[in-house]
Amino acid sequence: MTTTAPSSTARRSRYRWRVVDIVVAAVLGVAAGLVFLAWNLGYQVPGSFLQAALPGLQGLVNGVWLFAGVLGGIIIRKPGAALFTEVVAAVVSALVGNVWGGFLTIEAGIVQGLGAEIVLALFLYSRWTPTVAVLAGAAAGLFNGVNDLVLWYAGADVPFGVVYVLSSVLSGAVIAGLLSWLLARAIARTGALSRFASGRESTARV
Prior knowledge:
Layout lengths: L3 H12 L3 H24 L1 H10 L13 H10 L4 H16 L5 H21 L7 H22 L6 H32 L7 H9 L1
Helix pairs in contact: 2-4, 2-5, 4-5, 4-6, 4-7, 4-8, 5-6, 6-7, 7-8, 8-9
C-alpha cells in the first residue's frame, strides 16, 4: 500500500494540466495554424505535380497539416495535448477562411489530432523517442487519409485510395513525426521549454 500510493500520486501529477501547459499548447496551436494558412495557399503547386505523376500521390503534401498535434504532444506530454494543439491550429485556419469551410476544417483537425493522440496514449504518455513521434505522425496521416477519402474522394477507385492513404501516412511519419521531434528538441535547446520535462531532458543531454 505504501509503495503504490506515491507512484499513483506521481502519475496523477504528471498527467494533470497546469496553466503553463494550456498556454503553451495554445501558442503552439496558433503558430501552427499560421503555418497551415500559408500551406493552404502553397500546397497546390507541389500537389498538382504529384497528382500528375501518380494519382493519389498528392497525399505527400498532407504532413504539413498534421505536425501541430505531434509537436504539441511531445512538448506538453499530457493526455489530450496532441488533440488540443491540432484542433487549435485547425480553428485558426477555419476562422481566417479556406476553401474547405470552417466545419470541415475543424473536423479534420479533430480526426488528425486523434490519430496522434491514440499513439501517445498507447505508450502511456511516457515514451518520447523519435520512433514514437514517427508512429504518432504516421497515425495522424492514416486518419487524415481515410477521412479525406470519405469526405473528398468518395467513389475513388482502389488504387487511388491505396496510394493516397500510404502517401499521407509517409508524409505524416516524416514531416509531422520526425521533423516535429527535431523541432521540439531545437526549441528546447533555446531554454524556452525549461518548465517542461521535454525541455529539461533536451538541455541535460547537451
